[in-house]
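Lab notebook, bench 4. Still working through the backlog of constructs that have no structural model yet. Next entry is a single chain of 567 residues. Request: give me the structure tokens for it.
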Amino acid sequence: MARTVGIGHQDFETLILSNNFYIDKTILIKEWWESGDVVTLITRPRRFGKTLNMSMLEKFFSCRYAGRGDLFEGLAIWEEKAYRDLQGTFPVINISFANAKERNFQGAKQSISQILEDIYNKNVFLLEGDLLTEHEKSYFRSVSRGMEETTAVWAIHKMSDFLSRYYGKKVVLFLDEYDTPMQEAYAGGYWEEMAGFIRSLLNASFKTNPYLERAMMTGITRISKESIFSDLNNLEVVTASSGKYGADFGFTEQEVFAALEEFGLSGQKQEVKEWYDGFTFGEWKDIYNPWSIINFLSAGELAPYWANTSSNQLAGQLIREGSQGIKQEFEKLLNGAAITTELDEQIVYSQLGRDEQAIWSLLLAGGYLKVSHYEVFTDEFGNWSPRYTLELTNFEVKVMFRKMVRGWFVPAAREYNALVQALLLDDVKAMNLYMNKVSAEMFSYFDTGKKPSEDEPERFYHGFVLGLMVELSDRYIITSNRESGFGRYDVMLEPRKQEDGAIILEFKVQDLEREKTLSDTVTAAVEQIRKKDYAASLYAKGIPKEKIRNYGFAFCGKKVLVGKGNA
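Model written out:
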């Protein structure tokens, strides 16, 4: 009989005792312990079993769970005699920063302080007797939501000392979602303050902690060493490019197909693979998103479960506000093509707004992209750099990004939809009316804050192109900045059906020295289409001249003029 599928279980004990569906990942315990690494950082996308695995590790090692072998009976780790003897033998500190999401530094610091206070409350028995000095008891009682920053920084270190003395053994420390406060700090504009605080906290907890036996951290991203790990020389980092622990987070294809058999869904293996497969960790291929699989087993329906678990706000913001180059590469990805770029898996948040590599690194770490090919490129001077070929991870991610692009135009949804219809109907008057309404509403939405779109309208109109791709992909193959004739056109809409005509769009910013009016700019744009024979690639596919429409879009600040030219 198939097991019950419980959604959202993050506590290992509850999951096991309720006999819910569970894919055995306990071999992680052996692999990690035998690695000998003092501090391990494992990065994986969200909803990939990180929290459940940390809960499993806590229940296995913690003195509080001594004699609780029943939680592990029948699982892989319990077949190892030596590990049966290890269960429940260490003092453990288990912390999660998953809920440390605040709009400002003061609120974030208080949120983390509250998490630390909760740890102290769980161990209040340490105040009994004479294990602690009066000074130490005073410090213990001072750990609270409103404590001084210095007190918070040393809280984990001090608790390690207290527990080590009480149990006569060094502590095992687990920190889940370590990077959540940092991501929130970037979004909230208080990165530097939070980086300084977290750097001091991590150093005191993991580096200068003589009471530490082993430690593991998990998160989505590997934040650059210079940002918060500058003092941690004992850190083993396991990212998406590493094969270490490759099968311990996420589900392998073998595990997924076995689950589909168990639940009578084996006939949908191919559809499930297309939707949820695609994650790679080093040499481990065909890793599936566990959140999506569990939800599919429960509902029996294909849907974007993982994509809907968070707002994907940062990913969307980086693409929306990104340069012309970012948007053009993203167009390729949405069209099912691959991009090739250099990457550094250390995320430098200060570079996200201006370094394309940093953006692709973040999207890779987040699970939105997968590595389809990797090579080391060496130039003639002996300089080398890693080059990654990246694709959208799977169909679920594609669905998520299409929804995200649609969301960009929600503030001007009526005007934008009317504009698209006017374009299809060749209604130039309506195109002008609605294009100006859309630009007035949407230009600033594509701003980075440092480079307004009025100065760099390419960021806006390439966002507009992405919107067209999403809305019209059923009728047109939409491409941008491709060679045709004697140059590169801005946008081409190639019809999928013979009865639809082709459309070429050329965007131009008014040159105030050469063009007195926007009408002059429109004329220059449509003349460029004709002179450079952008329609050549359409002619080559058998599309006649009379089925091709050319439009020039002239920009001056937020003002736009649209005009039609002859093919």
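Notes after review: Residues 37 and 313 are 34 Å apart (CA to CA). The chain has 23 helices and 20 strands. Flag for follow-up if needed.
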